[in-house]
Amino acid sequence: MHEKRVARAYVAEMMLAFVVYTVLLLAAIRYGRPMPEGWLRTLVLVTPMIGFVMAFRAIARHVARIDEYQRIRLLENIAVAAAITLAGTFTYGFLETAGFPKVSMFYVWIGMGLSTAAVTLFRKVTAR
């Protein structure tokens, strides 16, 4: 019962964070990019970080609410995913010096999310 309540709270907080992030991102792209350079444009362009901070808070609250076993499993998954992401970004850094195109840092976050999902899924499937 507790696990389901915790999971529902986490999903609700993350969905709200994603909605806020998406709305602010679309607004920043639509209104911020055409603005003249300056502090106001910069402020508008970083407003999607409000949604990011909300997601970070949801994750931190989730980690605090789950039991010790779930917490250690989650943190192990994140640690392995961070290592995978580090290896990928470090390797691509060398490839950029070999002439590969520069890649936006936004891809690091995507890589971290995909790595975390892959590690979690792999550990779930192989645990049986």
Overall number of structural domains: 2
Instruction: Give the overall shape, derived from the CA principal axes.
Output: flat
Kindly report the average pLDDT value: 94
Can you write the helix and strand succession as a string? HHHHH
Number of strands: 0
The DSSP helix count reads 5
Structural class: mainly alpha
The amount of beta strand, in percent, is under 5%
Structure description:
- Helices cover 84% and strands 0% of the residues.
- It starts with a helix and ends with a helix.
- α1 (2-32) runs antiparallel to α2, α1 (2-32) runs antiparallel to α3 and α4 (68-97) crosses α5.
- It is mainly alpha-helical and 128 residues long.
- It is flat.
- It has helices spanning 2-32, 39-46, 49-65, 68-97, 106-126.
- The protein has 2 domains: 1-66; 67-128.
- The model has no long low-confidence stretch (mean pLDDT 94).
- The chain is built from 5 helices and no strands.
